[in-house]
Amino acid sequence: MAFEQLPQNARVMVQGAARGLGRALAEQLLQDKHVATLIVTSRDADSPGLTELVRADEKRVLPLALDLTDENSIQRAMERVEEHTPALDMIIVCAGLLHDRDTGLRPEKRLADITPDRLAAGFAVNAFGPILLLKHAEPLLTHERRAVFASLSARVGSIADNHLGGWYSYRAAKAAQNQFTRTAAIEMRRRNKQSIVVGLHPGTTDTELSRPFQRNVPAGKLFTPAFAATRLLAVIAGLTPDDSGGLFAWDGERIPY
User: Fold this and answer.
1) What pLDDT, in 10s, does the model give residues 76-124?
2) How far apart are CA 3 and CA 24, in angstroms?
3) Got the DSSP string for 15-27?
4) How many helices (H) and strands (E) does the chain have?
5) Domain ranges (residues) in the chain
6) Can you give the residue ranges of the Ketoreductase domain (predicted)?
């Protein structure tokens, strides 16, 4: 696979690369001859998923521990990145929290289901995590070349597209993420005219995040991680600085906030 918009000797980072869609994105980027350095992160740098990526190409892959809910962890990871490379051409953030079996977290169907703990957990991962990562990654994206910061968002975070209700915490956290994306895009453009800061909607992908909610997915609309990764990379390749601040679906559709 050739990722057309990447320069020679590109330096790319995928947060959440140990499994699911993040893993599929990392695997496809490793197939690109332009990628000289692929930084892959997970809460555990020794996780099986990252270990397998390193085994695939230990000269190009740098595994790092990064907990998106812990700013100190984010800062340490980005300091390690700066020690390894002076700049990055692309960062893809794959974190997302919709449910958690251990804590009983599930999407709220009614107002009565809302709790402060659910709200806090959803915002910590879905909204605060990506913008805190961009805060610490910003110096690495401030250069004269095309620099992409793409975070996985969701169509359900669109206020204009909300016709069903429910899923309060997830919808609100993703809406906040979209606002962070838009606001950061404005600031980033002042520092790098070639910067692109966007949210991406991958569609319903067969991962742990969507698994409990796949029963009603229409035929042909449940994507494999490999398919979703291919489509998202194609969308990123087609973006220009004029698209910065937007939310884009897997098929290139611009989703209203």
Assistant:
1) 999 999 999 999 999 999 988 886 766 667 889 999 999 999 899 999 9
2) 14
3) ETTTSHHHHHHHH
4) 7, 9
5) 10-249
6) 10-183
Residue 152 phi/psi, 5° resolution?
-70, 125
Q: Are 241 and 195 in contact (CB under 8 A)?
A: yes
Coil, strand or helix: which one is 176? helix
Q: DSSP string spanning 59-126?
A: TTEEEEE--TT-HHHHHHHHHHHHHH-S--SEEEE----S-BTTTTB---SSGGG--HHHHHHHHIII
CA–CA gap between residue 110 and residue 217 (Å, rounded): 21
**Which residue, 107, 221, 224, 105, is CA-closest to 172?**
107
The H or E element spanning position 40 is: strand 35-42
Question: Is the pTM here over 0.90, yes or no?
Answer: yes
- DSSP class of residue 143 equals S
Q: Tokens standing for 177?
A: 């993420």
**Residue found under tokens 């910065």:** 244
Residue count of the chain: 257
Q: How far apart are CA 14 and CA 20, in angstroms?
A: 12
The CATH number of the structural domain formed by 10-249 is 3.40.50.720
Q: Which residues contact 244 (CB under 8 A, 6 or more apart)?
A: 185, 188, 189, 195, 196, 197, 198
